[in-house]
Design goal:
The chain has 123 residues and is α+β, with helices and mostly antiparallel strands. The protein has one domain. Helices cover 44% and strands 13% of the residues. It is built from three helices and three strands; from the N terminus they run H-E-E-E-H-H. It has a three-stranded antiparallel sheet, covered by helices on one side. Helix 2 crosses helix 3. The longest helix is centred in the middle third of the chain and has 29 residues.
Amino acid sequence: MADKSDVADRGSAPSPSVAGGDQKSAQHTPGPWEILTVTCKGSRNRRAIRGKTRAICNISLDDDEQEANARLIAAAPDMLAALVSVERFLTETWRDGWDDFHPHAIQLRAVRDAIQTAEEGRS
């Protein structure tokens, strides 16, 4: 259970751990990323994920799951930008009196965890 004195003294959203006001600059290839079909002699059907400035990865497409993985990877920069926007919104709309178990607090933690994973990897 959340310490009530900690919640009462907080008076605002928990400070951002990674995103928000103290957000790091992106260390990944800038988006948007796109999926290109790659044809190689004697090779299976392949896709390349490419950003504006460089290739991100190549994927052999043996099944529908790998095609879905290619779409997910290509969408990563847009998803990270959306998470940063949601983090900013939840922080700006924080209300005094909300504790760590308020639905917005739970969502804010999940959003910040996802941003941290994208920016620093899983710990």
